[in-house]
Design a protein that fits this description.
Elements lengths: L2 E6 L1 E7 L2 E8 L1 H9 L5 E8 L2 H11 L4 E8 L4 E5 L4 E2 L18 H5 L7 E4 L4 H8 L5 E5 L10 H8 L3 E6 L1 H11 L3 H8 L3 E5 L4 E6 L2 E6 L12 H13 L6 H18 L13 E5 L5 E4 L1
Parallel strand pairs: 1-4, 1-8, 2-6, 4-5, 8-9, 9-10, 10-11
Antiparallel strand pairs: 2-3, 6-7, 11-12, 12-13, 14-15
Length: 298
């Protein structure tokens, strides 16, 4: 059994007080994969630019032994996000270049051909590629939805039909949680029951959420100080730690309590630092032309 994520690989630039601090790999499904790789066998199937930023993205995953043998290099610029103090952008703040691409370079066949029946797929969107993959395999999935745009086009019946009996873990960001309740007029407990997810985590605020499993709803609160300025990727880390406990275990009170305890501790710690990959943050030593182009890292 492996945990598998797929798609475009990203590289993130992290700024603090308008100064560049670190560079690292990014994107939620890859972050989750990176953070569970010390416990499970993992593989990323995808594409990345044939540039220095692509090198960083691959180096980051490889540093924690994520299998990157099925990542193809493309003659395009790597998907890059610049996390500034108050917003994120794909446009380099130094030279105003737009980094990344809009074309689709993968099909579901690229993924289906490389997964086994017992592999678990880690998915962070419901775009066309995701739908094709979900509809053409029977693998269990870990699905993290933090953007309402991924579900706007579905009716309730369509969403239930897509996800029914598939989710080992379904995590809903607070905006998605609210959107489901408002659009579909359904309680989150009933939604979880309808799709028969093993566990559903419904985030309400940065500190409050519900964990729904079996026939229980447990209200959870993060007990500790949250540094909101460093929240980027914290939910990725929570999900990662939660998965480390529940995969392969019976889903009961003891398992859920332990999973939350460990995940909450990592969640709090992650807000004290910059970046989603605690042990994979690189400094740019020097660069040619611009920080978004030819770089050397420490």
């Amino acid at each position: 059994m492996k945990l598998i994520a797929y798609g475009d690989l990203y590289t993130n630039y992290y700024f603090k007080n308008n100064l560049l601090e670190y560079i690292s790999g990014g994107k939620s499904n890859a972050n989750i994969l990176y953070n569970v790789a010390d416990t499970f066998s993992t593989k990323f199937i995808g594409v990345v630019g044939n540039d220095k930023q692509g090198d960083v993205s691959l180096l980051s995953l490889n540093s924690n032994n994520v299998d990157i043998s099925d990542v193809r290099r493309l003659n395009v610029s790597t998907q890059t996000i610049f996390y500034l103090d108050k917003h994120s952008t794909r446009v380099c703040p130094y030279c105003d270049r737009l980094r990344g691409y809009s074309d689709v370079y993968m099909t579901y066949k690229d993924v289906i051909s490389k997964i086994e029946e017992d592999d678990i797929l880690v998915i962070d969107s419901l775009e066309e590629l995701d739908l094709d993959i979900i509809n053409n395999c029977n693998n269990k999935i870990v699905l993290y939805l933090n953007d309402i745009n991924y579900i706007k086009r579905f009716s309730l019946d369509e969403l239930i039909d897509l996800l029914k009996d598939r989710c080992l873990l379904l995590c809903l960001g607070n905006k998605v949680n609210a959107f489901i309740k408002d659009k579909y007029k359904i309680d989150i407990f009933d939604f979880k029951t309808s799709i028969n997810a093993s566990v559903l985590i419904s985030f309400k605020t940065v500190k409050d959420f519900d964990i729904i499993y079996n026939d229980l709803v447990e209200e959870k609160e993060i007990d500790g100080r949250i540094y909101k300025e460093n929240m980027r990727g914290s939910l990725d880390l929570y999900i990662s730690e939660f998965l480390k406990v529940i995969i392969g275990k019976e889903i009961d009170d003891k398992t859920i309590s332990l999973a939350h305890l460990k995940a909450a501790a990592m969640y709090i710690y992650s807000t004290t630092i910059i970046g989603e990959r605690i042990d994979s943050l690189y400094k740019i030593r020097d660069y040619k032309e611009c920080i978004c182009k030819d770089i050397s890292i420490d």
